[in-house]
Design brief:
This protein is of the alpha/beta class. The protein has a domain of about 150 residues: Rossmann fold, CATH 3.40.50. Helix 7 links the parallel strand 7 and strand 8. The chain has eleven helices and ten strands. Helix 3 runs parallel beside helix 6. Strands 6-7-8-3-9-10 form a six-stranded mixed beta sheet, with helices on both faces. A four-stranded antiparallel beta sheet has the order 2-1-4-5, covered by helices on one side.
Length: about 260
């Protein structure tokens, strides 16, 4: 469904943020994009979503294809109209509007309003709390409820692909687990593909089918999540586990043993 090929992205005509990355998101699958701060994860999804002008971001080389169509030069609203909806980092709901008004804004691409009513019923099934809070200002929701609203706002637009940027950011572990379980349900029951950017590798790998690891704007590792979870370097560097299965902080890890075959 989504294919990124040798993508190079520059900020302000100076900073090379992505250095020829390639990756794919098949239809109906969940793909995780992992990496530390500054690795290029958010840049990747901003390039996919067409959020370039306000960030002074330019695609210098390579291509982004969606369902066989190159979308490098498409504006963000045109990309959304194709079925790619982004759930941005930090929720970014419309705080002064009600929960229902936020959902209504999310449905702008639907010409048939009956589909919006059906979509709202669907998101209420996944997020019952939003039905209870329908008339409440979104700014008064808890952090977890705001994240649910941000996901629901994308889902009500009937996306083919949802791109999520750090959905666990700033949330309590119990809420993170609940939200990722719902993301998994949405994928299984609605057939919506998901590209999820996460620093919390453990929770991302718990639902993803495939994952890529970015470092300094390059893909240094990729594979099915089952294989990555058993990889020694992933376990220590991203999951904080030693070979004995005990917790280990990143400060205790002297270096990231990146094997040459991952870079070849």
């Amino acid at each position: 469904m989504l294919r990124i090929t040798n993508l190079e992205v520059v900020y302000s005509d100076i900073i090379l943020a992505l250095k020829g990355i390639s990756m794919e998101v098949p239809a109906g699958r969940i793909v995780a994009l992992l990496g530390a701060n500054g690795a290029g994860k958010t840049t990747t999804i901003n390039a996919v979503s067409g959020i370039r002008k306000t960030l002074d971001l330019t695609i210098e080389d390579g291509s982004v294809e969606f369902e066989g169509r190159v979308i490098n030069d498409n504006a963000s609203h045109a990309i959304a109209a194709l079925g790619i909806l982004q759930v941005p980092e930090g929720r970014r709901i419309f705080a002064e509007l009600t929960v229902d008004e936020n959902l209504l804004i999310g449905s702008y691409r639907l010409r048939d309003r009956s589909r919006f009513r059906k979509g709202k019923e669907t998101v209420h099934e996944y997020f019952p709390i939003l039905k209870k809070r329908a008339g409440q200002r979104a700014g008064y929701l808890s952090g977890g409820e705001q994240q649910m609203l941000a996901i629901a706002r994308a889902l009500v637009a009937e996306p083919k692909l949802i791109v999520m940027d750090e959905p666990s950011l700033g949330l309590a572990p119990m809420i993170v687990t609940e939200i990722f379980q719902i993301i998994d349900r949405i994928n299984r029951e609605q057939g919506v593909a998901v590209l999820v950017v996460e620093q919390n590798a453990n929770v991302a790998l718990s639902i993803a089918h495939y994952a890529y690891v970015l470092e300094n704007g390059r893909v240094v590792m990729e594979g099915p999540t089952e294989a990555l979870r058993e990889n020694r370097d992933i376990r220590e560097f991203y999951l904080g586990l030693t070979e004995l299965g005990t917790n280990k902080s990143l400060r205790q890890i002297k270096h990231y043993r990146r094997r040459k075959r991952w870079l070849s």
